[in-house]
Amino acid sequence: MPPGHGSTSPSAPPTNPLPIHLSSTRTSPRLTFVLRQDQVATQRALTSYRDLDPSFTSTREHQLLEDLAAAVEQGEPDAFADKLFQYDQMSKLDKWKTTILLRIKSGIEEKGEDFS
């Protein structure tokens, strides 16, 4: 087995690929909850992810998801865009996430227009 891939060799550095994998699998479904503007499901998912991996709460992804969910709940497309811009400056988002996030922002704007 190649070093860094769960090898039990004493010379192999200890690795844990699980957090990296879970980070991606956490973020994508959570975006789906936010896209549907389902705050109850969003909070349940966050709680489940925290229970699964307590270190998730200290990640930038967790903070981003919390910030985006708050912006959606408050109907603040500018706050949503600002938090997303700040995150993207440090970690470029892939095309799928960018597409989903733009749809979410559009949904916030449309929701705000419905009340005008």
Structure explained in plain terms:
The chain has 116 residues and is an all-alpha fold. The protein has one domain (18-114). 70% of the residues lie in helices and 0% in strands. The chain contains five helices and no strands. The chain has helices spanning 18-35, 39-52, 60-74, 77-90, 95-114. The longest helix has 20 residues, at 95-114. Mean pLDDT is 74; it is low at 1-22.
Summarize the structure.
This protein is an all-alpha fold and about 120 residues long.
Continuous helix count:
5
**Proportion of helical residues:** 55-70%
**Radius of gyration from CA coordinates:** 17 Å
Q: Given the C-alpha coordinates, what overall shape results?
A: globular
Count up the domains. Answer: 1
What composes the largest sheet? Answer: none
Q: Which stretches are poorly predicted, pLDDT < 50 over at least 5 residues?
A: 1-22
SSE string, helices as H and strands as E: HHHHH
Based on DSSP secondary structure assignment, what is the total number of beta strands? 0
Structural class: mainly alpha
pLDDT averaged residue by residue: 74
- Strand-residue proportion: under 5%
- How far is the first residue's CA from the last residue's CA? 61 Å
